[in-house]
Amino acid sequence: MKPISRTSKISVIWISLILVLAFFATVLPQPANIKAANCAATYTVVSGDTLSAIALKYNTTIQAIAAANNLKEPYTLTIGQKLCIPAGTTSGTPVSTPGSTPAPGGSSTKPSFSATFSGRFVTIKTTNYPKKNFYSVNAFLPGKPNKYIVGYFKTPQSSTMQQTYQLHKDLRNVRNLTICLKNRVYDNVQCNRYSLQDGIYNLVFSWNITYTVERNK
Q1: How many CA atoms are closer than 13 Å to the CA of 85, on its beta-carbon side?
Q2: Residue 52 neighbours by CB distance under 10 Å
Q3: Do residues 155 and 130 lie in contact, with contact meaning Cβ atoms separated by under 8 Å?
């Protein structure tokens, strides 16, 4: 039998290595990548960003962004990180409009709030919010992740609270404005978006973001 040459042996070894690597490439889990086809947008994280602020900016939820990017709690972000903003996320839960049929059994018992604007002031009224909880009142302008802190409050023993705050000059008479109430302990957020029409702010839609769950000790 004719002996196998050194060159042939090297070729056989290289072919074997390529086949082995190809096999492992098909069975090993692939790293998580942003799939552009499933993203409505791609966002690059900058200094001071939080997942909640990014979710508010794109009218989606923290859970939706976390799932699209394989993020795990506590959702730590790094400057320069690119996030997939998932396609098909909703802009929030539509609210009932005047003349719509109320739900059976009367008014809802879910927590809600309203914002009434008057010149330089806004009046926040809560309904069915948890008693004796601390909240911050935050405002957001469209397309800008930075928030304006309007004020703070603590819910009383009763289920209804009403308080008036002075608006920052940047927030007065703007066409669209989002007001959010954020629980200072559990970071749960409820937001309403308002649109200025004929000098009156109308509620367009509202949504909730819950990314810290209260645990029983």
Answers
A1: 18
A2: 22
A3: yes
Task: Quote the CA–CA distance of 125 and 160 in Å, as a whole number.
Answer: 7
Q: What is the pTM of this model?
A: 0.51
Which tens digit of pLDDT belongs to each residue from 6-39?
666 666 666 666 665 555 544 444 344 444 447 8
Q: How many residues does the chain have?
A: 217
Q: How far, in Å, CA of 26 to CA of 151, rounded?
A: 55
User: Apex CA 58: angle with CA 56 and CA 60, to 5°?
Assistant: 70
Which CATH class, in words, describes the domain spanning 109-209? mainly beta
Instruction: Find out whether 68 and 84 touch, Cβ atoms under 8 Å.
Output: yes
| Every domain of the chain and the residues it spans | 36-86, 109-209
The DSSP secondary-structure symbol of 38 reads G
The topology (CATH level 3) of 36-86 is Membrane-bound Lytic Murein Transglycosylase D; Chain A (3.10.350)
Beta strands in 36-167 (DSSP E): 39-44, 82-86, 93-94, 112-118, 121-127, 134-140, 147-154, 160-166
